[in-house]
Amino acid sequence: VIEPSAGTNDVLEVHLHEATPRSESLAPLSLRRTVRKGHEDREFPQAVVSRLCEPLERRFVYVPRATSQARRVAEWTLEANRQQTWRDDAQRELGAWLRFDDRAAREARDGLSTAGMEITGVAGWYVRHFMKPEDALTDSFRARAVASVEALVQQGAGWILVLGDGTSRAGLIETGRRFQRMGLRARACGVGIHPMTQVLEEEPWRSAIAGEFGLAEPPQFILRAGFVDPYPPPVSLRRPVPAFVERD
Predict the structure, then answer these.
(1) Could you count the other beta carbons within 10 Å of the beta carbon of residue 118?
(2) Does residue 8 have a pLDDT over 80?
């Protein structure tokens, strides 16, 4: 049982109880991943929308790519990325999560590896051998990042806005649970999802997005989504269970 912590510093508490094992396969947990590239442009039929968003309990907005609102989300996402990319504090934070070389990725088992960012081939080899996290502050890195986003926001079936209570720990945890359940459905549907949340982090777009869709408050996730064929295998280095467990 996972529940929000009553303490002031801990985020949540995990309580272990004996229970009858469930029959579901855990394989989908190891197969899901973020898919940045290769999203097809065809929009989702209603059956796929319903299957994807069923775990969200109607707390979502699907924005088909052909709509003016989808074009606006794409434009705002690009502009929010551009603004954030040229903020030094944001780039320093990004640099702290970059795992350019294989050794750093294996040791940390988190952050953004070249495989996770889908930088492959000669470009991937160059990045792994010659680039450092501090390069995130260079003009050339920033320009390439913005150009990449400009290409990506044009791809996909549209956008999914995930709604949820953003004012409490319990609300944030529950929204995260819904998002994770949706991620498993997406893999089963052959749908790639790519969180692009800069609109929610930068003004004036953070305030504008709620009004654009008539929401009482900003969504908690903004996802670019689209069919991908073939669906790529997972690449993230996952931490073993003992890394999350502290024993008395």
Answers:
(1) 15
(2) no
